[in-house]
Fold this sequence. Notes:
Blueprint: H1 3-34, E1 42-47, H2 53-65, E2 69-75, E3 78-83, H3 89-109
Antiparallel strand pairs: 1-3, 2-3
Amino acid sequence: MNIFRKFVILIFVGSLFVKAYLTACAKLIWSIYFQIDSLESEIFEVPLSTQSEWNQIVIAHFITLTPGSLAIDLRDSKILVHALDRNSRGSLEKLIFEKLEPALKRLSKESPL
């Protein structure tokens, strides 16, 4: 994999984080100020298809750095997640399965980072 391709994939993953971070911040602020009485937190498990420990750790950090969510445990290709708002589960899983995991798999497929 050439250096330009790695750079493009890293930029893509970075932009995913920035977008997820800003969206989560806005949702968290909205929830705290306008929906505090109706918030229901949830703990759930996210099974990962990637077997790379590096990719699993990056995804766990991605979850933890996103406001309103926390990666509690990483074991056997599964991440235990606490979400402040149970409605955020679907969007978090969609982000991981459809964008983050495929990008990280492409990045690490030919290069051991």
